Structure formats: C-alpha cells, structure tokens
Amino acid sequence: MPIRIISSHARHEQDVKKGHLHSMHVWWATRPLAACRAVLLGAVLPDPAHPKCPENFKERSWELLRPLSTKSEIDGMALRQSLLNFIGDFSAWEFSTDKRMVDTARELVKAAHPDAPPLVVDPFAGIGSIPFEALRLGVDVFASDLNPVAVLLLKTALEYLPTYREHLAKAVERYGTWLQERVAKELKEFYPESKGSIPLAYIWARTILCEGPGCGAEIPLVGLLMLSHKPKNLVALRYRGDKARKQVIFDLFQPKSEGVVQNGIVQHFSATCPVCGYTTPYKRVREQLRAKRGGTQDARLIAVITLKPDGSRDFRLATEQDHRAIRKALQALDNLRKHNGQLPVIPDEPLPPAGSLGFRIQRYGMTTWGDLFTPRQILALNTLTQAVLDTHQLVLKETEDQDFARAVATCLSLAVSNMCQYFSSISFWSYDHMAKVFQINALPMRPDFAEANPLMPDLVGGFDFALDQVARFLERESKQGLRSGTVQQGPASRIPLPDQSIPTVVTDPPYYDAVPYADLSDFCYVWLKRMLRKLHPDLFYLPLTPKADECIMDPGPPRPGELEKDRTFFENCIQRALAECKRVLQPDGLAVVLFAHKGTQGWESLLKALVEAEWTVTASWPIETEREARMRARNSAVLASSVFLVCRPRLGTEVVGDWREVLSELHPRVHAWMQLLVKEGIVGADAIFACIGPALEIYSRYNAVETAGGKRIELADRYGQKGELVERGYLSYVWEAVAKEALNMIFEGADPTGFEQDSRLTAMWLWTLRTGTSGINRKGSEAPEVGREKKAKKANGYTLEYDAVRKIAQGLGVHLEELSRHGGIVEIKGNVATLLFVDERRETLFGKGESELQKRSGGQTTLFGEPLPAVKASSGAPEVRKTTLDRLHQAMLLFGDGRIEALKRLLVDEGVGKDDRFWRLAQALFALYPRNSEEKRWVDGVLGRKKSLGF
User: Fold this and answer.
1) 390-398: long-range pairs with CB below 8 Å, 24+
2) At what angle do helices 76-90 and 33-44 cross, to 10 degrees?
3) What is the C-alpha separation between 459 and 465, in angstroms, rounded?
4) Angle (nearest 5°) at CA 782 between 778 and 783
5) Helix (H) or strand (E) holding 269
6) How far is C-alpha 39 from the chain's CA centre?
7) CB 3.0 to 4.6 Å from 18: which of 44, 472, 639, 756, for a disulfide?
C-alpha cells in the first residue's frame, strides 16, 4: 500500500470543513475517507502481479491505467505499480468526486467482479466512513450499528441520499430556509439586537459564594478573559472587587498584549475572591455547584459578543435589555411546560452513573441531560423541535410522499442535533469563535461557558450554519450516482446474513476504553427523540441509547441489571463480533480491521479476540489519520495512525506451532517490516503497533503454539494475584523485538548495549513518542475540566502507559524499578509512567544548593558575562550520578543556564567529552527530542561546542 501518499491525503482531508460526511453531524473517532477509500480498493481488487489474478481483470485494468512498460505483453509488476499509484491518487479529497477517477475505480471493481458487485459488510459502521466510500466504488454495502444515532446517520448517507439525490439536497435547503424563518419569528425577541448589531455569543459564568471569613460575596467563576485574540483587535475582560458592596465588577479593555491580562478568577476549579482575596478550594467549589445541580440555572451573564452591520465584531458588557430577554425566555419556557406533550420539555433522562468513562459533570450535581442547558437554550431547542415536526407535515402535504417527507425531516433534525454541541452550558468561546463541546471524546465540566445565538447567520453555533453543513454534504455527493446500501440497527455479534456468503468485511470497532459512544451520543439522542420518535419509532423507543451490548471497556459502575464492562467483557464482546464476521465471510474472503489505541492492554484485548475468533493476521498498514495538534497528544504517546489489520479466516484442522520455529521467524520479520516502515516515514508508537500484523501472522496461523515440552505459549502475559509477572506471552516477545530493532536504528549501527540502561530507555521512550509528521508539544496540556485558560497545569515530563513502558524496559534489559527510585529518570503514578524533563532533575544532578542558586538567579550570568560560581552539593544532597545520560543532562542544563565556562570544565577538565558515548548519545537524543523543546535546543548547544573544545 502507498501509505505515505495516502497518509498525506488523509491529513489534508482533516482540514476540509464543508461538504464532508463528517461535517454533517458530530461523531467520534472517525477515520478519514481517504484512508477508507484506499483500503477498500486494496481489499476488493486482486493483485495484478499474483499468478492467480484473473486475466480479464489484468486486460481491463491495463486498458484503464495504461502503465508504462517496455514489455509487449501485459506486465504484472508494472500493472501492480500503476494500480497502487491510482489508489494513492484517488485517496485525495479533490479526486473523490472527479468523474474520471470515480468511473475508473468503478470499472476496476467491475472488472474484478464481473458477475455482480461484491458485498462489503461493516458491523461497527458508526457515521459510515467505510460503507459510504464503498458505495462510491460501486460496491454493495451492508452497514449496521447498535447505536440509533449512528443508524440515523447511516440511513441519511447510505439510503436517503442515494435514493433521492439532488431532489433531497434541494428540498433540505428549501424547507430548511422555511424552518429557519419561522423559528426566527418565534425566538427573535429572546435574542435582541442592539444598535443594529446581532448577538453572536453570550459569556456566562457559574457562581459560588466566597467562603472567606466575613465575606460571602458572589464569585463568578470566570476563567476565560481573552475574548478576541486577533492581533489588531485584542479584547479582554478585567475584574475588580468592590469591598463596600461585596461585588465583583467587570469591564472590557483592549490590552497591548495577552500577557497583561489578569489570571482567571477560577483555576482548576479553585476560586480566588476578587473582593477579599480568599481562595475557595476545589472541593468546596464543587460542593456549592453540586447543591445547585451544576449552577447552570443561576449563572451570571457577563458579556455579549455581537456582529456589527459591517461584519466586524463588537464586545460589550451585558445590559438590562439582555437580562430582560432572559427573563422573558424563562417565562415562555414556564408557559411551554404547562402545555407539555408526551415527553418533558426539559429532558429528564438521566446522565450516566458518576465515574463513567468520559464524564465528570455528575460530580458537580448534574443528574439529567436537561441540567446541561440554560432555560433559554431549552426554549430554543423546543421551538426548533416543533418546527421540524411541522416541516415534516408541510413536506408531506406538498409531496404526498411519506418516505421523502421522513428523509427531509431527518436531515433537518440532524442540523438541530448537531447545533447542540455549540449550544449548551459546557460550550465555550475560543479564539474568536464558538467551540464545540466535543473537543475531546468526553464531556468535561466548565466553570464559564458561551451561549450561541441560534438565529445568527452563517456562523458557527447557529442553526443556519448547521443546516449548511448538512446541505453542503448532500449537494456535493448527490451527483455521484450512488446506489443505495442496506442499513440495520443491531449488535455486531448478530449479522443477519447467511454463512460464508460475503467476500469482504471492513470495519472499525471500538477502541477499548477510548470512546464511550453510547453515553456521548445521548447528548444528541434526547433531542432527536423529541423530533423523530414518530418518524423512526424503531430507533427512538428507548429512553436513551442501548448500552448493555456496547462493546467498550468502561471503568465506571455498571447500570442495574447489566454486566461490568471490564477487560474481560470487552474481549468477549469483540471476540463474538469477530467470530460472527468470520461466519458470514467466504473461506477465501478478506477482512480488514482498523484499530488505533495507544495502550498495550487495548491492543492485547483486540488481538486475543482475533486469534480466538480463528483469524490469521497477514499484514498491517499504518495510515496517518489523526490531527497533528490534538488536545490529547501533548507530551504523551497518542497514535497519529490507524493500523489497518489485514485478516483471513484460519482454515484447516487443529495445527500446533513449534515455539522455537515461531521465535526464530519473529526477529527477521520485525527487522524487515521496520525497515519498510521507516522508509515510509512511520516511526514511534505507530511503527510499534504496525509491526503487530506481520508478527501476529506467525503466531495466528496456528491453533496453538507450544514448547517442545508441551507448554502452551499464550498471546498476552499472565500475572499473579499480586500483579507479579508469572509467564511471558508472545506479545511481550514482539515488543522486545521491536524495541531492540528500534534501538539499533536510533544509534545508527552502534551497539546500543554499550549504553547504560537509563540511556537506552530514554532513547526508546522518546522514539515511541514520535509520529511521522511531528514531535510532541512541550507545553503542558490543558486541564480538561477548566478548559482553555492560559495558566494550565504544567507537565513534568513525557508520559506513556505504564504497561507499555514495562514491556519496553523488559525488552531492553532495563530494570524499571531502579530508574524510578528517588533521583531516577522515571516517575510512576498508577497506570501512567513519566520520563522526567531534564530541568526536573536539576537537584538530582547538581545538589540542592545548586538548584536553589539557579532558582534565585534565574540561570543568568553576571553583569560582565562571567559565569556564576559553581556550588557544590550540600551534604544532604543526593549523590551525583555518573551515567552517560546524567553527564549529558548536566551539560544540557549548564548550556541552558548560559554557564559556558562551567560546561567547558565538565567536558574538558573532568574528561566527560572524551567519552565517545557522550557524543553519540547527544546526537541520538538531538534527533529524538520534540522540535521546539528546551531539551532539543540545549543538546544542540552542547553539540555545537564539540569542535571548539577540540573533540
């Protein structure tokens, strides 16, 4: 597979904002269409260079692709290369609707399957990335998902769009405009204009009472102060405490730089009172908000961001007119509740149990989905809900087509539902625009929030924008001549197809504990149910989305009557689904399973399920599918790639593999695969997990692998009751082979065993963090509960899952417990291991006295440029270590502090620079440290002194 080209197109596609399937409605952990399209073509087309490739396919593809070849007859290798080039080119976003490219792809599929189009099955279809691209190729599709919100999205893309095409696109735009105009008349008084300016967003803050002695002032929990980050129009809030009235006063100003803006009143949910200066700690803030069910209903309106007639932004404090509109909305909502229908106006469906995966809002007293919305938001959403129902009746009256009216109403409901992610009390204003709730695969609590105006034109957060997202997708894809697919709701363990009836399965199952799909989608489900329960009674008959059969690992408490979703639950669930896929697949069929989990436990669970479901993994292709600057990718190993595992059914009688033969095959296979991956630009965690496929091919071709003495080698490690390792599994040997191969590449042919264990682990750790396109951001990651205020908690190192570190250390012959003791390079807390930043080791390397001197001096030289005197370690300081890595870290800190003379003494007088390992390690770490990091700059500075010091 041309993974470098496909990855490039997949990254580019992430920036597409309109006309994309994924922009139609929010969904989680979606895969780029570029990668899906390329992998599907690779799965349904034969290899022209294979001896068993049908001649008619080679002849037709030779006509279509016209490969360059000097041979007079058909050249299978040249044709293979042309086909791979086509797959790479066709993965580009701009070619996905190019008639010539689409027609060529469909002709290739037709030539490969002349009797009838092949059927591709995806039992974990989600939003439909895989089945939708299969339709583009002219392939028949069966797509299913347990989640009713996902099924609704699948019906729209795979059934309604191919059936009604341009007619649907035009109708959605036309009736959507009618709906918008109608809603605007009903809601306009609740979002009043001011001097011709349209409100875009309202800035709110939850409040508590100061618990300082004798104070009791109301504290608005404001963390967001910068309202405009545009260089020529910086706008910020500032605040002061009025001790006489015990009030917090706000005003707006234009700072010269963001650096002069105050810190937020709230930081990590601890609130410092501007009136008396007392800081109410996090737990007490949480308890006060808990007593008010999250504090949404009595939040304080601070400021309003508006759009002036000339298109520019304006910023003002909230006025009496704004508060009057809020009171009118509250009264209107009370009147609406008196005329309640079958479902409550305010969603009373319960939130997931406290502690559920991805959810923190319950600890602040929120118990129902209605607690996430302000009264005005609930009024607006109910108005939109009724408008969708009325639009359905209007379409039905005008067309007398029940199915078409249902399709139009469904598309309009998706626009309303998608708007909700900008329209709740956990939405926020970020860098001059409304930001969606689902920045991460979770629902974090926010002390302050932004309320969008649903009536604003064309901008993010309004219904007009959400409608445009749906309409643009329908319009772009309506001209592709897609055939309808088959969509069904149900668990992946029950596929309603005959045994051995299909040639291809391509699916993207849940990633262990990465995404709580069902719980997150309830955010949309409660509103979709109010719009569509009569139009889709089979999808919206339950209070919330079904959870019992959802295939995830969730550490939260189980619901009444349901099983605990631990690792065993996930493994059993995914194993049943994969066994079902094998049941419906033809004996010579092919399956592709996508997986993108950063933890070894998730991978081990999936691979165990694959083996027990009697699949043989034959290859694995890593394709970059993730954004370069994701929130969860900072200072931690998060995959940039999805790994596409190519699988075939294991056939034949019970075959037992010999452990010695399996182990002898492993290292050469990993070596060859790593070389290929590096050439394609795949490194780090992506390369580690991409090696699983070829390594597992050796193991999974057998029903069991045993030693000469009959002892069975399991796939995963086995542990005792106290967590001690009892028996190594096959995968630990895979991690070991990958780690050793990577270390040999890192040190460019030098024997890595010549370095101490801290050097080996550091090099491998940093290499694991790398991706094919970027390094890791050195800045500390944002506190997920607070949001985006500038004083986020600073990270102290580079993090990896502890189990991954343990396996890497084991493979490198490193004693992790020694390096995690006091003064070591590793810190372990729970299931997270951290490789400490170099400046976190200052006291260990120089002693406490030196560390305090540097803190006082800021690491500066004297007025005349003379270096500050070196301070010997105090008698109570830890012993200065003597490893090559410690010496390099000392040199890096000296350079970073500007102490060039001290650096010279270390390298020359103490002879550190005479050790060739020092420079080889410095060179290796320079290549591994994240770009723009302090460490990279420091080690570069040390390397820059090498020649001048005579080394």
Assistant:
1) 390/182, 391/175, 391/178, 391/179, 392/535, 394/175, 394/178, 395/171, 395/175
2) 150
3) 6
4) 135
5) none
6) 21
7) 472
Phi, psi of 304 (to 5 degrees): -130, 135
Distance between CA 502 and CA 586 in Å, rounded?
6
β-partners of residue 744 are: none
Average pLDDT over residues 119-131: 96
Tell me which DSSP letter residue 592 carries. Answer: E
Q: Please give the Cα distance from 636 to 261 (Å, whole number).
A: 30
Closest to 639 (Cα-Cα) out of 628, 655, 647, 650 = 628
- CA–CA separation, 179 and 170 (whole Å): 14
- 3-state class percentages of the chain: helix first, strand second, coil last, to nearest 5: 45, 15, 40
- Report residue 55 as tokens: 């001649």
pLDDT of residue 577: 96
Q: Quick check: pTM over 0.90?
A: no
3-class state of residue 460 by DSSP: coil
Question: Do the Cβ atoms of 530 and 427 come closer than 8 Å?
Answer: no
Query: Domain-by-domain residue ranges, the chain?
Result: 1-116, 637-775+788-821, 837-951
CB atoms within 10 A of CB 389: 18
The residue with tokens 């692709």 is 65
Strand spans (E) along 492-545: 502-507
Residue 68: pLDDT band (50, 70, 90) is low
What's the CA gap between 804 and 824, in Å, rounded?
19
Cα gap 826→819, rounded to integer Å: 6
Nearest CA-CA partner of 939 in 802, 786, 762: 762
CB contact at 8 A, 584 and 119: no
Question: How far from the centroid of its chain's Cα atoms is residue 828's Cα?
Answer: 24
Q: How far apart are CA 891 and CA 869, in angstroms?
A: 16
User: Is it the case that residue 411 has pLDDT exceeding 80?
Assistant: yes
- Residue 898 CB burial class (10 angstroms; 0-12, 13-18, ≥19): middle
Residue 316: phi and psi, rounded to 5, are: -145, 160
Within 71-160, residue ranges assigned H as helices are 76-90, 99-112, 129-136, 148-154
The pLDDT tens digits for 839-858 are 999 988 888 655 444 444 44
Sign of the dihedral through C-alpha 480, 107, 591, 770? negative
Q: Give the model confidence (pLDDT) of 214-270 as tens digits.
A: 999 999 999 989 999 988 889 999 999 999 999 999 999 999 998 899 999 999 899
Q: Which residues contact 414 (CB under 8 A, 6 or more apart)?
A: 24, 25, 152, 153, 156, 470
The confidence score (pLDDT) of residue 618 equals 86
pLDDT band at 778 (very low <50, low <70, confident <90, very high): very low
Of 642, 648, 689, 686, the C-alpha closest to 508 is 642
SS3 124: coil
pLDDT over 70 at 427, yes or no: yes
Is the CB of residue 545 less than 8 Å from the CB of residue 522?
Answer: yes
pLDDT digits (tens, 9 = 90+) for 636-661: 444 556 888 999 998 766 788 899 99
Q: Give yes or no for a contact between 837 and 865, defined as CB atoms under 8 angstroms apart.
A: no
Closest by alpha carbon to 472, among 157, 159, 169, 171?
Answer: 169
Each residue of 160-175: pLDDT tens digit? Answer: 999 999 999 999 999 9
In sequence order, what are the residues at sequence separation of 6 or more whose Cβ sits closer than 8 angstroms to the Cβ of residue 365?
A: 289, 290, 291, 292, 293, 294, 295, 371
Q: Which residues pair with 429 in a beta bridge?
A: 434
* Nearest CA-CA partner of 486 in 22, 143, 69: 143
Q: pLDDT-derived band of residue 777, with 50, 70 and 90 as boundaries?
A: very low
- Of 814, 144, 176, the C-alpha closest to 495 is 144
